[in-house]
Amino acid sequence: MDSPLPLPRMQQRIRDSFARQGLMQHLGATLAETEPGRIAIQLSRRREVSQHNGFIHAGALGAIADSAGGYAAFTLFTEADDVLSIEYKMNFMSPAAGERVEAVGTVVKSGRTLTVCNLEVFDLETNRKLIAVGQQTLIRVPLKA
Length: 145
Fold this sequence. Notes:
By secondary structure, the chain is of the alpha+beta class. It is 25% helix and 41% strand.
């Protein structure tokens, strides 16, 4: 198996891939941190990502958490690898009432085929209050040309 990419190349690969994600662009999400095995994605509260009480919608929180975990796994892969989510589960503990949230994906175990990540979502307006946690399984697949 090939080795993971050098840090600058890996970070550029993540930025390039993130820029191609239509959903992340639609939500207005931004990359906040790109390190091996750890990715943070931020999202600001806007009408387009809100639910009926004005909080950031759980679907938007789940989407940025899923992407954070997927990219965290992707940071440990080679140029020949791509990543797809197999499953993820989120527990929402508090509403996303602040103006900005951050989803952090952290690799727990990166295997030859499957990778498991922890997912956390923080409300940045309330002293980084943890508002959601989750776990995700991803599959490493050959990159298609």
